[in-house]
Amino acid sequence: MSNSSSLNEFLLLAFADTRELQLVHFSLFLGIYLAALLGNSLIITAIVCDPRLHTPMYFFLLNLSLLDLGSISTTVPKSMANSLWDTRAISYSGCAAQVFLLLFFMSAEHCLLTIMAYDRYVAICRPLHYSTLMGSRACVQMAAAVWASGFLNAVLHTGNTFSIRLCQGNVMEQFFCEVPQLLRLSCSDSYLREVGVIVLNAFLGFVCFVFIVLSYVQIFTVVLRIPSEQGQHKAFSMCLPHLAVVSLFLSTGIFAYLKPPSISSPPLDLVVAVLYAVVPPTVNPLIYSMRNKELKEALSKLIQWVQCQH
pLDDT truncated to tens, each residue of the chain (310 aa)? Predict the structure, then answer.
């Protein structure tokens, strides 16, 4: 296996050796996956069906749910299937597809979370200019830029990663194909170009995070001047969950890709991967719907309508 072209498959991390524990892992991931599917699908359906939710904030939330559905569907089903069929294998093309799709959805989500922060900033700090700055055309252009930037970043990363010579076997210490794990299988110096791309991505990620934090500093400054406690509570309940999601998503993602090999271990890598690839798509629907009165009303209407049909 001196060259990546001679590899037919990779072996992913097995969660358990015994059949009982494999089935426990399958059941746990199935529960998480179904929760993510249900939550995100409900949000998408509620936003599409309720005319009151046809606003920029909910348009971006719909895009976020689509990206979350894509990212969790890239990693979790394959891991579940491997546990169910008692195998660790993923084909070379399957691995490349996983890397491409995960990078596509996660890069796009990163950009989208930045735009969502900007949307909240304009709504709270510049309300008189909101309809001008966040018109339907501008929102569609921003969403298109999000998906396009995710696609271009995924093409760059995947092309770079799979052009590297691999000479350290084909065993990965992760439950899905991840760029840091592939770099660990590479020959000595051939991976430096991809490391450069990762560092550039991390820098851009950090710039986005700074932009998001500055947006929220401005938002909180304005909110604290609001005389009514109800107004303050509404603004904080909309903004703080978003900030929590962004912080978890970015910090774990950057840590996974930039941590030095010396502190790397299978349990740590696994926990970090679950925190950036599995947790956000599952908890985002809860965070964005539980504290949002309009969305809760739309969801309850949708559930009532479904019940009436049966």
Answer: 344 445 788 999 887 778 888 899 899 999 999 999 999 999 999 899 888 889 999 999 999 999 999 999 999 999 999 999 989 999 999 999 999 999 999 999 999 999 999 998 998 889 899 999 999 999 999 999 999 999 999 999 899 888 888 888 899 888 999 988 888 888 766 667 777 888 888 888 888 889 998 998 898 888 888 777 777 777 777 777 778 878 888 888 888 888 877 787 888 888 899 988 999 999 988 887 766 777 878 888 888 887 787 6
Count of beta carbons in the 10 Å neighbourhood of residue 55:
18
**Of residues 237, 251, 273, 281, the one with CA closest to residue 124:** 237
Instruction: Yes or no: say if 268 and 252 are a contact pair by the CB < 8 Å rule.
Output: no
Residue pair 4/169 in contact (Cβ under 8 Å)? The answer is no
* Residue with the two structure tokens 């599995």: 278
Contact 160, 193 (CB under 8 A): yes
- For residue 12, the 8-state DSSP code is P
If you write DSSP's letter for every residue of 140-209 in order, what string do you get? HHHHHHHHHHHHHHHHHHHHHHTTS-B-S-SB-SSSS--HHHHHHTB-SSTTHHHHHHHHHHHHHHHHHH
Q: Which residues of 260-278 are buried (b: 16+ CB within 10 A; e: fewer)?
A: eeeeeeeeebeebbebbbb
Rg (CA), the chain: 21
Q: Is the dihedral of CA 196, 192, 153, 120 positive or negative?
A: negative
Whole-angstrom distance, CA of residue 137 vs CA of residue 6: 48
| 8 Å CB contact between 52 and 70 | no
What SS3 state is found at 111? helix
Which amino acid, residue 257?
Answer: Y
Tell me how far apart the 2 most distant CA atoms of the chain are, in Å: 68
Main-chain phi, psi angles of 45, to 5 degrees: -65, -45
**Alpha helices (H) along the chain:** 19-49, 56-84, 92-125, 130-133, 136-161, 179-184, 192-223, 229-258, 266-277, 279-290, 293-309
